[in-house]
Structures are given as C-alpha cells and as structure tokens.
Amino acid sequence: MPHHILATTTASISELKKNPMATVAAGEGFPVAVLNRNEPAFYCIPAAVYEELLEKLEDAELNRIADERSDQAEISVTLDEL
C-alpha cells in the first residue's frame, strides 16, 4: 500500500534509536520522516521548526478570530476612558 511521505529525508526507527541527533541533523533543518516497516510512523523536526510552526498556527487562529470580528461595529474610546 503506497504512502505519501512529506519529507525529502527518511530514516528507519532503528537509525533513530542508534543516533537520534544524527537523524535530526540529516534533515538539515527540515522534517525527517521516520519509517516503521517502510511506512511513515512520524516526522522528526528540529525544535526551532516546531516552535515556528506553532507560532504560524497561532497567527492563523488569531487571523480567523479577527476576520470573524471584522463586521462588528467600532467603538471610539480615548485613553482616559480606559
């Protein structure tokens, strides 16, 4: 059964167990698909990439909220009123 592998670098579970940091480094900053019996089991990504991904997801959620609220009436206030 074919599977889509969404990474250019792959490693086996055995390779990951032998040297986890070498597996991460093999991706050169990009995801590494970790295979179990030639099927993708999970993706290994550097911490910086994961943090960036979470920030983008948060930004997308905030944009969605802003879009939902774009039709609401504006209320004018001064700094003294706050």
Structure, described:
InterPro entries: phD/YefM_antitoxin (IPR051405). The chain has a three-stranded mixed beta sheet with strand order 1-2-3. The protein is of the alpha+beta class and 82 residues long. The protein has one domain (7-67): YefM-like fold (3-Layer(aba) Sandwich), CATH 3.40.1620. The model has no long low-confidence stretch (mean pLDDT 94). Helix content is 44%, strand content 18%.
Short description:
The chain is an alpha+beta fold.
Essential attributes:
82 residues; alpha+beta; YefM-like fold; three-stranded mixed β-sheet; 3 helices; 44% helix; 18% strand
For the sheet with most strands, the description reads:
3 strands, mixed
Shape: elongated
What is the helix tally?
3
**Percent helix among the residues?**
40-55%
Protein name: Antitoxin StbD
InterPro entries: phD/YefM_antitoxin
